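Summary for the funding panel

The consortium committed to producing paired sequence-structure records for every protein in the target list. Below we show the first two records in order, beginning with the earlier of the two.
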Amino acid sequence: MLFRQTLLYLPAQVFGPLFQFIAAVVWTHQLDATAYGVVTYLIAAQDLIAMVVLGGWSSYVLRHREELGERFGTNLRRHDLMFISVASGLQIVAAGPILWSINVELTWSLATMTALFLVTRSALSHYADVCRSETAIVTFTIGQLASPVLGSLLSFVAIQYLGPDPRAVLGALCVAQTLGLIVVMRRLGVKGSPLPPDKALLRSAYTYAGPLIAAGAALWIGGNGIRVVVEHMSGPVGLGLLSVGWGLGQRIAAFVATLVTAAAFTLAVKRMKEGDRHEAMRQVGVNNLLILGLLAPMAIGTLIVSTNLVTLIIAGPFQAATILIFPVATMTGALRNFAIHGACQTYLLVSRTDLSLKVNGFDAVTSMVCCAIGLYFGGVAGAAVGCMIAAGIWVMLTFSIAFSLGLPKMFGSAARIVIATLVMGGLLHLVNWPLGLIGLLETISAGGLIYVTALLVLLPEFRSGLLAALKRVSTASSA
């Protein structure tokens, strides 16, 4: 079931992050460091503001969609619209303070573009969670691809004709997000006026989501607080130089993690609703192994190919800083996504959002302290290393608590995955790979072959799973 659901979600999970990665690379050739820093900061800030004003309700719908549908029927869509409307108003108000926080020149046009960007992006993200809760995979795919695919392509054209201005990028993204929102809302049958929720719904939603909102804000600080620290200690140019490597590393880690996570949590929730807590926890545990099996070789592989990859794709002014920051950011992103899609989902599964708040609050404080210390002693690259150390501490804390809640440990399988990764990294490191595109492809191909071979030898579950998949393919071909 997990394999089939993962395949259905795969187009959105692959092409969305892929185009975001492409956009982040192309923008280094179209924007200067200051403009690049502003754009990427606003994209990161949107995650925070959306999490605060709408993310809790989105998580509540994703977790309790079945009960809400039985209770409210078609009125649920109208209640949903009210939450979105209130959140949109709050985001419009927040646009000015967000821009002020990075000392950018505040103009009406930039403020308007920022407000529209925040509103359309958060609404589209919310409806993606609605689609997941209803297993509306085609609609989910349309919503997930609107901004990264269409928006990115429009932004390249907009910068070309309007100049290297953050407003050109934001305007292009707004157009794509608005079009995606229209299509998604029509396919979901969203119509009618917003309907205020009753007190019972508000109380239930925010009892569940209140701690989750605060925890999400703290989680954002852990992953993106470095942008604020660097901007205020090193200025907008320092922010721009950091943002390329940091953004690419975080993005590639999130992309790899989401290859197997879109369907996993909803399946675990289904098992929980059926009263099978053990099977629900096992579902999360299996997903942990899948994520580890993807993130570990990705992080080590990035370290090996970083210099060659950055030299090939990133514009000259950004290269020196990105070569240092990119592998550190990728490792940090790998650690954080491993916990977010593993241990942290355990807290949500058992409705212990108070634990999310506590561990994420610890993460926020630890990350900011380690980041500031690293920046002071090692510059922008030192700030990234500080965040990586903080992420490692946070991972150990989150999993230790998750294990106490019943998450299966599966240490043996995890250790075999780590050993396979180290074998891959060690063998790749012994070879002096040529520079350029051919050398990059050779390194990646060899790494993949070594890693899969090591897994076949070390991990019986992988061996049996691969044989079963090949048997299904063979049976389908002969039918």
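The next record, for a separate protein in the list, is shown here:
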Amino acid sequence: MIYSVHGKLIFTEASLAVVECGGIGYACRTTSTTLAAIGSVGSEVQLFTHLSVREDAIELFGFADRDELACFQLLITVSGIGPKAALSILSDLTPNRFALLVASGDSSALTKVKGIGKKSAERIVVDLKDKLAKSNPTLKEIPAAAAPTGADTFSEALAALLVLGYQQEEVAPVLLGLDENASAEELIRLTLKEMGRRSDR
């Protein structure tokens, strides 16, 4: 198993990054998110990898961080979701947003990804909801309303509040009552204000 490749980025194109390590160029299929993160040709990069071995092909998939790799590996366990579809999903959604959509059961948002139909989206949610909740306790019991367009900022605010010592059941209802288009900083500020008001009662 190849855990990662670390070397010079020598070539990129849509869904592909080639990293030279010890004189060998490793062609890694990847997402647009990773391509944007690793910089330009000539830079030094590290990609966390997944080696796929099939009867008709051996392919290496590379990702800029472990979270994206973990989501990819979960996605390809779903019946009918191959590596190409998994890359497409993770090119449109960050691992954090993807996890929130699945945890909240929002399959309709997944159908906006090119090549993902209603049945595939529903299968992804059904197959991965429990797995994601087990791997990330902060995603357990996220209400369905928590996965609109502002899911990323909601998650950032929730994570920060949990670090500050609040319980999810305390702050999630407050967050859900706020403007979903607000920044994470604004959501945190308003939630802290409301929590402070409640503690003074």
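Regarding this second record: Strands lie at 4-13, 16-21, 24-29, 44-53, 58-63. Residues 118-135 form the longest helix (18 residues).
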